[in-house]
Amino acid sequence: MAKVKYYYDSVNLAYRKIKIRKRKKFGYAVLFLLASALFGFLTFVILLNTPYFDTPKERLQAREIENLKLNYAILSKKMDQVDDVIEDIEERDNTVYRVYFNTPAIPIEERKVGYSKIDHYASLQGYDNSKLVISTTKRIDALRKELAVQSKSLDEILKLAKAKSKLLSAIPAIQPVKNENLKQMASGFGYRTDPFTKARKMHEGMDFTAKTGTPVYATGDGVVARADNTASGYGNHIVIRHGYGYQTLYAHLSKYNCRPGKTVKRGDIIGYVGSTGRSEAPHLHYEVHKNGKVVNPLNFYYGNISAVEYVAISKIANQENQSLD
Question: How many H-runs (helices) and E-runs (strands) does the chain carry?
């Protein structure tokens, strides 16, 4: 029950009951409600701006951020797995496929090449998670580049596989003079003593001694590029271009059995042993070139000699003796 309030009437010298008008009561009530509402609103705003209470929107955003972090961790793990698989394919590509088809390996710098432009990722700057987004985008771009290089390499390997029979036929794979026609394998590839100057110099081929007129065979399929005696020191000589970077030279011939432009097969007789040009005795000087560089012919005699014969000829070829030209 509400307390009754009085006031002192000094005129009548008596206490009188205070009567509050209903209108005033209503005003007080409205004022109280407004003050309460304002106080409650201010309290709510203050609480919203404290770190102890999150709005539904903030809680939703927090859940989304956690979900994104989880998805990023999963994505990063998957990218690690993809990277491992690509590296394995690249390793096999360089050490198995490209070696098998005698094709140069792709340098790691070419496989791992990325974007060099500084402003390539400028559009991703300025966000809260820009560093994370940029690093992930760079990694995806690197993987895309590696896949593009590997795809191109496999296309090349596929073409080589289709042309495998031609490649194998083109590689110089037999001795240019048969063993039964040889007197001996006189000199091998490497530094030897010059028969004329007695100086030690590089001998860029192998010398096979045989009787004048002994058949000389093409060591691989190809096209005769030249058959003349215009090159200094070689005398009558033949050059065959086999393709795939291979070229062979047959020097000091007594005569030819082919002409420039003629297509020859491995085992075809292209000329005959002689001693023309800068030669000390009848023999065949034989060279193999790969991609413009002279290489040791001994590495290519796997088509017509046995393992025992190969060991024997390699011992002689590796002796540092005197060449015949």
Answer: 7, 14
3-class DSSP assignment, residue 100: helix
Q: Please state, in angstroms and rounded to a whole number, the distance separating the CA atoms of residues 215 and 147.
A: 51
Helical spans, DSSP H, in the chain:
22-48, 56-92, 98-100, 108-111, 130-162, 164-170, 307-317
Round to whole Å and give the CA distance between 312 and 320.
15
**For residue 264, what pLDDT is reported?**
96
CA distances from 72 to 39, 66, 75 (A): 44, 10, 5
Whole-number Å distance between alpha carbons of 151 and 43: 64
Between 217 and 25, the more confident residue is 217
d(CA 296, CA 272): 22
Q: Quote the CA–CA distance of 114 and 107 in Å, as a whole number.
A: 14
Residue 172: phi and psi, rounded to 5, are: -65, 105
| Banded model confidence at residue 111, pLDDT cuts 50, 70, 90 | confident
First to last CA, the chain: 136
**Count of residues in the chain:** 325
Full-model pTM: 0.50
| Rounded alpha-carbon distances, angstroms, from residue 301 to 12, 101, 174, 259 | 145, 18, 5, 25
Q: Who has greater pLDDT, 8 or 73?
A: 73
Distance CA 105, CA 5 (A): 106
- Tally Cβ neighbours within 10 Å of residue 130: 12
